[in-house]
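User: structure tokens for this one?
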Amino acid sequence: MSVMSILEIVLLPLLIVAILALPVYMAIRQKKSAKTMRRALITNLCAFAVVVLCAVAFPVGGMIHAAEAAEAVAATAANPSAGLGYLAAALAVGVGSIGCGIAVGNAAPAAIGAIAEEPKVFGKALIFVALGEGVAIYGLLIAIMILGKL
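Assistant:
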């Protein structure tokens, strides 16, 4: 094993985890105030930029063997529309999850307020929150159907 392989396999992921954990450590160590949280956000953005620069400077592509790459190219050549299918599946899950987050983010506080005023409406409030979560499940089902056709 060469020195670069050891760097790619062991040290580079450890460095990335340490850089990304730095803002969390700062937020835990210090008291939570607006200035501290602003500093943690700036540190997190800087850490992300450092990780992106490391990913560009030290690509971890040397671990792919030529035989595996040839098999992947042959599989892609057999089905040229597979890439669009994967993109469609990813969009179905992603957009469905974002819609679910918006729906639950609006329905859950209203449901909690309604339950606080009148505990009898728990069942109705739970149904409205569950309907919002169903959007993500529908997106996942569509993605599974798309991937089944590829």
